[in-house]
Design brief:
The chain is α/β, with parallel strands linked by helices and 469 residues long. The protein is built from 17 helices and 14 strands. The protein has a 6-stranded parallel sheet with strand order 3-2-1-4-5-6, sandwiched between helices. Strands 11-10-9-12-13-14 form a 6-stranded parallel sheet, with helices on both faces. A two-stranded parallel sheet has the order 7-8. Helix 1 (19-29) crosses helix 3 and helix 12 crosses helix 13. The longest helix has 32 residues, at 215-246. It is elongated. The protein starts with 7 loop residues before the first strand and ends in a 17-residue tail after the last strand. The chain binds uridine-5'-diphosphate-xylopyranose (UDX) (2 copies).
């Protein structure tokens, strides 16, 4: 680790999707600050130090290359990192707890608490601790108690600074955020620590976009932001089911609704379901908090967002089954895309996992294609018994298939030569567009039976046009 003393030393514990890009951008924007990212996983760290970063994110290679070795360092030496740091960001994972009280709902805080204890043991000078991980409300208070235990009183100031970046646009979101949120307590130490962190962001973020709040509002705002975003998708997906019954078109409805400036047009794309590491986890966390405080109705309300998402994923598979004559056994189905969204190789909570497992249950044969996510897909489905192949080239993947199911909105899938694909598929050929990004009329013209989300189906069967099972 480079030990040149700069104006400030920032450490980040956790070199994941959040910690890595966030620190790379801080280092790029603040050449006078030394930024070190540490992780317990040595493979992850060695990949951050190589030409093959552990995550795919547009623009990230360039930002890392520019700062790495200058004022950005990746290391496994957590203790030295803590010792040298003025500000410590903690960005370790907080998965859904899978055991004991709150199993399947509450956040598992074991990594956070372990990290807090390690900071307490290794720190011999005052430190500012920044919660970057998304945490239940009141975690900062619990952490403060751990930090203050024994004879360590008041050496640590805890701030909440949730990250709002979305994968696939992480660098852009970090360089030009809608807002930066910093929560602190109202003590002089809290205010002073908050102002130091404000000064870091103010190097590139306009002041009026840096919001300061009390620590609980900050922690809660992150959960609520994700819950509201996911709620929009579940709302539009719920209406997509009604569109399919009524021959209304979800894109037309979403456009009409989104032009109301009070609502806005973004995040209204109907889909096979939302995925990603945050939405489900954070909503369940919110639901757990509400139940904990006895707010059953509020908990039920938000849980509905997750329920509709499960329903949408299942509906997609049931629709495939019904349309393909109620049996998928021995049929070959090609998945176009496996990542939870375009521009990332991340597959955490991807609807692709659910769809693949359900199709295997129906004894279909799967060929999975994705430009960035096949390594993760193989890992996700390692325990699944069934006939699954992983083929990056979409033409090869679709060859010999009965159906294509488009799972991820990679733009390259809209630009393929579907005449060529159609000729290599088993007839009748089906296409299920789980993202509504394909030219449905044109596909129908080629000869496909086309099933979008929330729009009339385009088939070559004898039933009335648009009919669905
Ligand atoms: C994580 C959390 O999931 C999310 O709630 C939070 O908002 C930000 O941090 P992400 O960066 O996507 O999100 O997680 P992940 O890619 O899993 O990275 C976490 C890293 O922390 C891993 O590399 C893991 O090895 C590391 N880690 C975990 C530690 O260094 N120490 C630990 O004790 C546990
Ligand atoms: C989300 C939040 O956007 C981000 O602010 C927070 O910090 C972390 O969680 P992320 O999970 O990376 O980010 O991706 P996001 O772009 O929000 O998409 C989540 C899921 O919703 C994806 O599966 C995406 O395909 C889906 N989605 C999104 C839709 O189905 N329809 C839409 O209109 C938008």
């Amino acid at each position: 680790m480079n030990s040149v003393r700069r104006n400030m030393n920032i450490l980040c514990i956790g070199a994941g999707y959040v910690g890595g890009p966030t620190m790379a951008v801080i280092a790029a924007k603040c050449p006078d600050i030394q930024v070190t990212v540490v992780d317990i996983n040595p493979d992850r760290i060695s990949r951050w130090n190589s030409d093959h970063l552990p995550i795919y994110e547009p623009g990230l290679d360039e930002v890392v290359r520019a700062a790495r070795g200058r004022n950005l360092f990746f290391s496994t030496d957590i203790e030295a990192g803590i010792h040298d740091a003025d500000i410590i960001f903690v960005s370790v994972n907080t998965p859904t707890k899978m055991f004991g009280t709150g199993a399947g709902m509450a956040a598992d805080l074991q990594y956070w608490e372990k990290t807090a204890r390690q900071i307490r043991e290794c720190a011999d000078a005052p430190k500012i601790i920044v919660e970057k991980s998304t945490l239940p409300v009141k975690t900062a208070q619990a952490m403060k108690r751990i930090f203050d235990a024994g004879n360590h009183q008041n050496r640590f100031t805890v701030l909440s600074n949730p990250e709002f970046l979305a994968e696939g646009s992480a660098v852009r979101d970090l360089e030009n955020p809608d807002r930066v949120l910093i929560g602190s307590d109202a003590s002089p130490a809290g205010i002073q620590a908050r102002d130091r962190l404000v000064d870091v962001y103010a190097r590139w973020v306009p002041r009026n976009r840096i919001l300061t709040t009390n620590i609980w509002s900050s922690e809660l705002s992150k959960l609520v932001s994700n819950a509201f975003l996911a709620q929009r998708i579940s709302s539009v997906n719920a209406i997509s089911a009604l569109c399919e019954k009524t021959d209304a078109d979800i894109s037309e409805v979403a456009r009409a609704v989104g032009m109301d400036s009070r609502l806005g047009s973004r995040f209204l794309n109907a889909s096979v379901g939302f995925g990603g590491s945050c939405f489900k986890k954070d909503i369940l966390n919110l639901v757990y908090l509400c139940r904990y405080y006895g707010l059953e109705e509020v908990a039920d309300y938000w849980e509905g967002v997750v329920r509709i998402n499960e329903y949408q994923k299942e509906r997609f598979v049931v629709n495939m089954l019904g349309t393909m004559f109620h049996t998928l056994s021995g049929k070959r189905i090609c998945l176009f895309g496996f990542a939870f969204k375009a521009d990332t190789g991340d597959t955490r909570e991807s609807p692709g996992i659910f769809v693949a497992k359900r199709l295997i249950e129906e004894q279909a044969e799967l060929v999975i294609s994705d430009p960035k996510a096949l390594e993760n897909a193989r890992r996700d489905l390692a325990d699944v018994q069934g006939n699954i192949r992983y083929v990056e080239d979409p033409y090869e993947a679709a060859s010999g298939a009965d159906a294509i199911a488009l799972i991820t909105e990679w733009p390259q899938y809209a630009a393929l030569d579907y005449d060529r694909i159609f000729r290599t598929m088993v007839q009748p050929a089906f296409i299920f567009d789980g993202r509504n990004i394909l030219d449905h009329q044109r596909l129908h013209g080629i000869g496909f039976n086309v099933f979008p989300i929330g729009k009339p189906a385009l088939t070559h069967f004898h039933e009335a046009p648009g009919i669905r099972p």
